[in-house]
Amino acid sequence: MGDLRNFWPCIHHSKNRVQQPENFKKDTPTAINSGFLYDCTDLGVLNLKKDITNVNGDLSRKIKAFVLALFLANFAPGQPGLAIANPLETPVSINVEQLRTFPSEKIVIIDTRSRWKYFVSHIRGSVNLADWQDFTEQRAGVKGLLIEDKGLIVSKLRPLGIDRNKTIVLYGDPTDRWRTDGRFLWMFERFGFESVRILTGGLELWEESGGEIERGKQKSVSPSELSPEDIRFDDNVMATGSWIHKNLDRLAVIDNRTEKEYNGATPYGSPRGGHIPQAIHIPWEQFFTESGVLKSKPELNALLKKNGIDSDKEVVVYCTGGVRSGMAYYAFRSLGVSVRNYDGSWWDWSLDSKLPVEGNS
To answer: How far apart are CA 33 and CA 20, in angstroms?
Structure first.
């Protein structure tokens, strides 16, 4: 077993046990199940934020669970590797071998995980977009709406070396139920970028395949020449509540939240519970394998057929604030289906009393 102190001096052993994450390996030896806490003033550079989609906003618990998983992955003997299926050949996916051979001057790799996870380990040369909320604003009381100020957008992207002439490759944590790489995929396509892909298997498969990784803060990169004129909003990938209501009969509306939310639960402060009338409930996780990899094309088509989704209808996906539905957007884009992400989602629909609701128990 490796020496954890040599790996990261900021970590020390805690006497308290950590609540096991849902995907925790139950056969892990008890002695390894002890938790770890961070204790390092240098971590202030990470600017850690609470996750507003976590009911309790309990960031410290997430950190402890993550560091525990990190320890198991790097130091526990005999742990099996993550089983990864073959990726789809789609215009929005890229596999590790394709990424490895891609000319570095024509690509920007973006790590969409938290600053904490990026600090611990990331793909060599990648930049970090850790918070989808940095590209949102509140309008008319609705949270999570994508910003539309082109100057502001450019000011956030240019320092990362992002421009229209490069392919953008996104990766997240495939096993994170709040992963945001799908949201960022949709965001870049909404901004008019034409070559955006998600890395199949994320950092774990990249590392398992021998890809180079780095640790620590993000290194400085040369800013791009991106200009406000390069931001060309694509209205065909977004939807508003009023537009959905007007076109409801010709749409296949997919609710990607949990079953409890679909049936009326409001864990994230929505003024009304329920779902959009005629919405079909497919939790976003059903589009992915247990390892967090997009299912095969036959499996995805079978899922749509099972749920009675008409291939002739345009698809709209939604959740609470357009994040979980971003992963469903990725799945439908992979199939070549015309799809829109409703970024206002239930925060928006439930706030407008003129819009009808079903399933409010």
So the answer is: 8
Provide the angle, in degrees to the nearest 10, between the axes of the packed helices 181-190 and 324-334.
Answer: 70
What is the Cα–Cα distance from 248 to 242, expressed in whole angstroms? 10
Contacts of 77 (CB under 8 A, 6+ apart): 1
Name the pairing type of β-strands 122-123 and 213-214. antiparallel
Q: Is the pLDDT of residue 66 over 50?
A: no
Q: Residue 238 is which amino acid?
A: M
> Is there a common fold for 93-234 and 236-349?
yes
Answer for the pair 315, 255: CB distance below 8 angstroms, yes or no.
no
289 band by pLDDT with thresholds 50, 70 and 90: very high
Cβ neighbours of residue 3 closer than 8 Å, sequence gap 6 or more: none
Q: What is the pLDDT of residues 25-43, one digit of tens each?
A: 333 332 222 222 223 333 3
Q: Is 144 a residue whose pLDDT tops 60?
A: yes
CB atoms within 10 A of CB 257: 24
Residues 87-125: pLDDT tens digits?
Answer: 445 689 999 999 999 999 999 999 999 999 999 999 999
**Is 93-234 CATH 3.40.250.10?**
yes
- Its pTM surpasses 0.70: yes
Task: Give the pairing type, strands 11-17 and 34-38.
Answer: antiparallel
For residue 137, with 0-12 CB atoms within 10 Å meaning exposed, 13-18 middle and 19 or more buried, which class applies?
middle
Q: Decide: 267 and 261 in contact? Cβ < 8 Å.
A: yes
In angstroms, the CA 218 to CA 327 distance is 26
| Per-residue pLDDT tens digits for 221-251 | 999 999 999 999 999 999 999 999 999 999 9
Yes or no: domain 236-349 corresponds to CATH 3.40.250.10: yes
| pLDDT at 159 > cutoff 80 | yes
E-assigned strand segments in the chain: 11-17, 34-38, 93-94, 107-111, 122-123, 127-128, 136-139, 142-146, 167-171, 196-199, 213-214, 251-255, 280-281, 314-318, 339-341
- Residue extents of the structural domains in the chain: 4-75, 93-234, 236-349
